[in-house]
# Entry
Amino acid sequence: MKPRNLCLLRALLPVLGCLAAAPVLADRPVVRLDIRNHLFWPAEISVPANTRIRLEVTNHDPTPEEFESYELNREKVIMGNHPGILFIGPLAPGEYPFFGEFHPKSAQGRVIAR
Amino acid sequence: MLLTAVIIVLREVLEAALLISILAALSGALGIRRYWIGGALAAGLAGAIVIAGSLDTITAWLDGAGQEVLNAAMQALIYLLLGMFICLLILRGRARTQSGIGMKLIMTAAVGLATAREGSEILIYASGFVMNLPQLMSVLIGTSIGAGIGISAGALLYYLLVSLNDRWSRRVGAGLLVLVAAGLLSQATLLLTQADWLPAGLPLWDSSALIAERSVTGQLLYAMIGYEATPDAFQAASYFGGGILLLCAALIAVRYRRRAGDHP
# Structure
């Protein structure tokens, strides 16, 4: 594809994304993360760099938690005994810490992109 | 636990408190009575309770994107309301005689939405400790301290704005509203990216070495002007595009008022 067409495609992406969000979701690599006793399991997750990842967080505690990361620019409440989905990346290779905002001392983890 | 509560509550209260202070100060400069704030806070609290009580359902909407889409919609709506407010503020000029019912409604809606959004998160956080009495005490104390600091910061901004004369308080207030609104729009964009409704790119820049988002300055700037250390292209574009759009609307309003003033 010519660079110019690519630019046009990029400009149209948000529109296309809104129209066709559901089919796009299926293509993302899925990474699962559990919250138990205010801890993340696993506390370290490896993801491919420069790739958009579908992160499925399941909170097994009865109390709510908030998945938060300044480095990933993410913030999402995960209700007690409920799942939550969020998308991270594309990430440059490196380490990206995240934490549970409601229990920041125990709930700590990091994403490693390589 | 206490410190965590202080930080969480402060972050949420600060965002709403700064918006309320600016609008309260502008109400004064416009000669609008400030009774609307009570109504807005009551409506916001009711909204916060509804959102907090049904967040598990909301989260599951739209294939799991419900939380992000609802929050983004609320923030985009506040952006539009503030844009309308700024235009009305300019068009109204120096007149202090009109009732300003439209402006009161817009301010009520904006503050109500902001309070519902920030309040629901505090309620959800606190709800996790209801069954845990010893921790609940420190959470409640932390909540009071956090709310106290947030409200004090709002009060400080309010008194700074009202200490200016009407004309300058209106100008500075409107300027701050543009920044707050642009910040909200870029937050809305970020949420849609998080839900994969918008594509994501690598960060355009990284200013975290200069001002870290987790630092006090970073948090204040985030609450005030939507500071982000590592924004991607969509976020930056929505921030600056959203801000410029409001400035253009404001300029059009200024020209319109001047013309109306020249030919009464």
Q: What stands out?
A: Confidence is low (pLDDT under 50) at residues 1-5, 15-25 of chain A. Residues 3-19 of chain A form the longest helix (17 residues).
